[in-house]
Amino acid sequence: MTEGGAGAMERLIIDTDIGTYYDDAFAVLLAANSPELRFEGVTTCYGDTALRAEIACKILEFVGMPDVPVYAGIGDPLGEAEALMFGFEGQGIFDDGRPEKQPEPGSAVDFLVRMVRENPGEITICTLGAVTNVAAAIRQDPTFVTNLKHLIIMGGVIVPVVDEKGITRSPIEEYNLNNDPVAAKIVMNSGANITLVPIDVTLRVPMAQRHIEAMEEASSKSAQMVSRILKPWPEQERLIYLSVGIPTEFTGIWLHDPLTVAVAADPGLITSARLHVATEYAPTLVPRDLLIRHDVLRTIPKKKAPNMNVAVDVDAERFTQLFADLIVDGR
Q1: Strand partners, 152
Q2: Res 2: pLDDT
Q3: What is the CATH number of the domain that holds 235?
Q4: Residues 240-262: what's their mean pLDDT?
């Protein structure tokens, strides 16, 4: 845990599919360096959660935070979908060996339930992947939703980004919620105090080249880790996008997950609106498939009583500079 006056700090748990994309690791590093956050733990989701937990352990150990507990969570989605692993998880992170730090015994779900029950109204959870663990916690403990202070979800698409030619430039089939749509419906309809940070907003915060170069030159462990993770990434991302049919113009170093964690520390980074967001399957034209699909889970605003806060804009310059400063000048 970070040091400081606990009364002024947001008590944060990160639930993550760390290891596949770079930005989960960056979000953990942001939490490790944020003076506004008391970092209570990491839980892993989706696929090989034991490997993902080891990746989180390595990052925390590398930056001198081995006391932050890490728990492996549920790997399989609650529905019939199967988890997808790309096979390069941990690339760059294990360059100097595996960590001495090990994940905690016990389940991520039990950890979430226990922390929220024992600290009512104090725990914020940021989900950066499929929300399977949180859905399971809701099922396990009827008091979980009312005792949870805040649930910040990186997921969904509220207003797809369309360019001046009318071409959609953001994904319609968002990755995190569609990796476990059954869990997504449970969580989004739970009545929890939710802030949704959708991809149409996170696509406004690319990592600037000047910040990448500053991290390459910095001496902090956090900056070293960012540089290690980024080195093989551009070509890797292009191959990932091609493999799942996403147009390669979406490639770039997007700070989706760091922004979501930063909202826990500083809600003023985003402009939010109270909306009713329905989570439902909807006929969707997926350009890469050139057909209408009926199995895509969508986050659709409705003219009903609001059920969550939704990020609709972001102070991109302030956030990206904040992220760079925390990493360059941090631990």
Answers
A1: 126, 195
A2: 36
A3: 3.90.245.10
A4: 75
259: closest CA among 302, 203, 304, 213?
203
Helices (H) and strands (E) in the chain, counts: 13, 11
Token duo for residue 198 = 């959708």
Q: Which domain holds residue 63?
A: 6-329
The confidence score (pLDDT) of residue 90 equals: 84
Residue 1 in domain: no
Q: How far apart are CA 237 and CA 250, in angstroms?
A: 10
Q: State which H helix or E strand residue 267 sits in.
A: none
Coil vs helix vs strand at 236:
helix
Q: Are 129 and 45 in contact (CB under 8 A)?
A: yes
Q: How many domains does the chain have?
A: 1
Whole-prediction pTM: 0.91
Band of the pLDDT at 247, cuts 50, 70, 90?
A: low
Beta bridge pairs of residue 168: 162
Q: Which of 93, 90, 53 is nearest to 73 (CA)?
A: 53
